[in-house]
Amino acid sequence: HFDSKTELLTIPLGSIHYKMKTTALHEIHVAKGAKMVDFAGYHMPMVYTSVKEEHHWVRKEVGLFDVSHMGLFRISGEQASQELQEVFSNDVNALSIGKAQYTLLLNEKGGIVDDLLLYRMAAKEYLAVVNAANISIDWNHIMASKATKAKWENLSDNWSILALQGPRSQEVMHRILEKSTSSLSNQNDCCPVTFSNGASGYVARTGYTGETGCEIMIPREATISLWGVLEKEHSLRFIGLGARDTLRLEAGLCLYGHDLNEKINPVEANLKWAIAKKRKEVGGFNGWEKIKNLLANGSEKIRVGIKPDGKVIARENTKIFSSDNNEIGFVT
Question: Three-state DSSP class for 282?
């Protein structure tokens, strides 16, 4: 039973009723025949046709991903930059207006609480997009540490995030804006925009498919109207989370909960580049003392890319052996 007033889907499991959250486009996904699954507490589209077909479509055309289950925080105020510098691993002070950076939220032991994208939309306004399963974990972790100087807003339940990915994504993007903008010319660009349906929001040139693309951040109540504009676009298809995962994997991008977790640090994860050079020298973020030692002495293990020989499937947690039959690792 879908209750549109509470935006919850109730599924009877014997005597148990499990409530999943839904995105603004939920009914459209169902109407288009998507295979729906529980993902991070949301009823999400896993696949529409086949993962392989959708994967290749994004590589050659343009696909639309509903990733509204992701978390969205807004950080603003006079002390925003200073506070973000204390919370995240990358150098926020090096982030100019209209640019995005990949960064990490770490615990006291240097473990990765989450990986995320941070956008500087204005001089004193930032957005952080965090992983869906970690929204409450991240928020509570931040609130318990440094988040007292800036204004933090959790927009997750009231905003949608849609990702246009593929070679034709820029062409589509510029047609759905009220006016085109040169602020979105390069990778990692971002800016506030007004869409052709009259809604105000944000657009960023980031993404997690390894393909050219834009992320649209828009108030939930304006999402259906924007879809009405998007559905007229030639060759635009909805793409499920299954292809999003294979596209990410093909591009060698990390997935939290698999390649990353609180017991894995940035050095082991081969993400030292997410700690800017200046931060490595002066520190100042949570977990810095542990990271400083790891940067100096290295780690006993490290995440690397592998390419199986032939059609062997490298399933998660499969052990990896060297040519002389010594166990040297496992598949994440």
Answer: helix
Looking at the DSSP assignment, which residues form a beta bridge with residue 122? 125
Cα angle 182, 183, 187 (rounded to 5 degrees) comes to: 110
- What is the number of other CB atoms lying within 10 angstroms of the CB of residue 199? 17
Burial degree of 324 (CB within 10 A; 0-12, 13-18, 19+): exposed
Taking the CB of residue 281, how many other CB atoms lie within 10 A of it?
Answer: 9
Residues 160 and 220: beta-carbon distance below 8 Å = yes
Give per-residue pLDDT as tens, 39-84: 999 999 999 999 999 999 999 999 999 999 999 999 999 999 999 9
Which two structure tokens, joined as six digits, stand for 22?
A: 């839904």
State pLDDT tens for residues 276-287.
888 888 888 888
Instruction: Give, in order, the Cα–Cα distances in Å from 248 to each of 34, 131, 271, 320.
Output: 20, 14, 16, 21
Answer whether 0.85 is exceeded by the pTM.
Answer: yes
Token representation of residue 16:
């148990």
Q: Are 57 and 165 in contact (CB under 8 A)?
A: no
Phi, psi of 132 (to 5 degrees): -55, -45
Whether the CB-CB separation of 314 and 331 falls below 8 Å is answered with yes
Report how far residue 141's alpha carbon sits from residue 31's, in angstroms, rounded to the nearest whole number.
38
Q: CA triplet 130, 191, 176: central angle to 5 degrees?
A: 100
Q: What are phi and psi of 41, to 5 degrees?
A: 85, 5
